[in-house]
Amino acid sequence: MLGGRRVRNQLISILAAVVLTIGLIAPPAGAQQTDPSVILFLEAYRVLRDEALAQPTPETLVRGAEAGLRTVLRDEGQNPAQLPALQLTGDERTDLALILNHIEQVQAIARARPVSVIHGAVAGMVAALRDQNSVFYTPDAFAQFNRTFGREEFVGIGIVLEDRGGHPTITNVLENSPASESGLRAGDIILTVDGTSTTGMSLDQVSQMIRGAEGTTVTLGLQRQGQAEPVTVTLTRRRITQRVVTTRLLPSGIGYLRLTQFSPRSDELVAQGLQALIEQGAKGLVLDLRGNLGGLLDASVNIASHFLERGVVVTLESGRGASTTYVVRPRTPKFTGPLVVLVDRGSASASEVVAGALQDAGIKLVGTRTYGKATVQAIYSFRDGSGMRVTISRYLTPAGRDIDGRGLTPDVEVSTTGVPLGSPDDAPLNRAVSLLQQAALAPARTAP
After folding, report:
1. Residues 310 and 250 placed together within one structural domain of the fold
2. pLDDT tens-digit profile of 286-335?
3. Whether residue 210 is found in the same domain as residue 226
4. Angle, in degrees to the nearest 10, between helices 92-109 and 36-51
C-alpha cells in the first residue's frame, strides 16, 4: 500500500520531471522489514536528511517527528504528555529505533488511522526544517496540489496570496474571476475564512481553506487599506481559465507579451507569441512578468533562451558543495531586438530567474522590486498518495547574485497604479514603451 517510489520534480516555487531511485536506510533492528509505515517514514527521513537545503541533523529530524506525534495526540484532545520524552543517544540507528517505537505507541492509543500517525511524524520532520517553502501533503492535499499546479484551468476564486509580516495578503487578482468580479484588490489582507481567523496559519493552510468544489461559496473577512472596518465578501468558486500568454502589437509598434506562469506549455506558447509579433513587425518588446509567481525551472531556462544568444541562465547550489549550471539553449524564434521586462512584488521564483538573467545581460527591468525567492523545491510522492515539497537548492543569477530575501531591483522604478495590467493607463507599461522607443534605432543586442 505504502512504499518506496519517489517522483522528484524541481520547482522554482511551487517541475522538471526526473524519476529517481530512492536509497532507503535499512530499518533499525526490531523494525518489521515489510511494514509499509516504516518504509514511508524512513524514505521521508532519508530525503530530508540528504537533500534538504537546510541540512538538518538526524537529531533535528527525530525531534521533529516526536513533536509531530505530540501534535497528533493534541489534535485528538489527548494529553501529549502521555508520550514519554525521547532519550536520544546520538547514534542514528538507535535513535531511529526509538522514534519508530514512539510511532507504534501513538498508533496504539490514537483514534487516527496508523498511516495518519505516520503522516503526523513526517509533517513534524518537515516543520523542523523551519522553511516556509517545505511542506508535507496528505493524500487529499497532494491530489489537490497536483490538480492545480501549472494548470491553465482550475476551480477557485482567482487570487494569489503572499505572506507579508505574518498576514496572508492578496498580491494579484486574476482577470475574469470571482475575485475580480467581487472587487477584491491587491493589498487586501485575509483576516478570516468562513469565520475562522487566519492568525498563526501558514499560507498553505489559508489556501486550503479557501479552496473547494465548484459551485460552493467561501466568505472572506478582509482588512482593506483606507477602511477602518473589515470588509466581508462571499464568493462562489468556479472554473477559471487563466491565459498563460497574452500578446498584442501596441499602437506604438512595440510588441507586448505577458506571461502569467511557467507551466509545461509556457515555452511553446511564448514561441508562438514571439513569432506572431515578429511577423507583425514589432520594433521592440515588453515582456510582462508582473504577478507571475513562477513554476517550472526548465520552462524558465527555455524562455530566457528566447532572448539570449549564449551564456549562463542560472546556477543552482545545493549547499553540499554541488552546483549545476544551466546555459542558454537553442530556441526558435530568438528575439534580440530592444527589450524591456516588467516586474513587481508578485514576480517570484522562475520569473526572477528570467528577469535576473536578462538584467545581467544588460536588459532593463521596469516596475518595483521583485519578491526575492531564490530557492528551488523538489516534489516527492509516496505510494499512499501523500507527498512532500522540499527546498533542495538556492540559485544565483549569471553574475553570481543571490537575491533570496532581497529580490531584483528594477533599473527604472515605477509603481503599478491599480489599473488593469496592460491597459492604456498602465504606468509601468507606458514607461517601458517610452524606453523602447528611445532604443528603437539602437543596434541589436548581443550576449556579453
Report:
1. yes
2. 999 998 988 899 999 999 999 999 999 999 999 888 899 999 999 999 99
3. yes
4. 130
Give me the number of domains the chain comprises.
3
364-367 and 339-343 beta bridge pairing: parallel
| Cα angle 398, 404, 406; round to 5 | 100
**Per annotation, catalytic residue among 207, 263, 373, 381:** 373
Instruction: Please tell me whether residues 39 and 110 are part of one structural domain.
Output: yes
Active site residue 334: no
Residue type for position 255? G
What pTM was computed for the model? 0.79
**408 and 293 together in one domain:** yes
Confidence of residue 22 (pLDDT cuts 50, 70, 90): very low
pLDDT given at position 4: 31
pLDDT at position 15 is: 31
Please give the full DSSP string across 239-283, using - where no structure is assigned. Answer: EEE--SEEEEE-TTS-EEEEE--B-TTHHHHHHHHHHHHHHTT-S
Is the domain of 326 the same as that of 420? yes
Of 77, 106, 137, the last residue of a domain is: 137
Render pLDDT for 87-113 as a digit per residue (tens, 0 to 9): 999 999 999 999 999 999 999 999 989
- pLDDT tens readout for residues 30-72: 554 457 778 999 999 999 999 999 999 999 999 999 999 999 9
* 3-state class (DSSP) for residue 148: helix
Query: Quick check: is 37 catalytic?
Result: no
**What span, in angstroms and rounded, lies between the C-alpha atoms of 395 and 316?**
4
Instruction: Look at residue 407 and tell me if it is in a domain.
Output: yes
Q: Mean of the per-residue pLDDT values for the chain?
A: 87
Assess whether 252 and 224 both reside in one domain.
Answer: no
In this structure, the answer to whether residues 43 and 88 fall within a common structural domain is yes
**8 A C-beta contact, residue 198 and residue 168:** yes
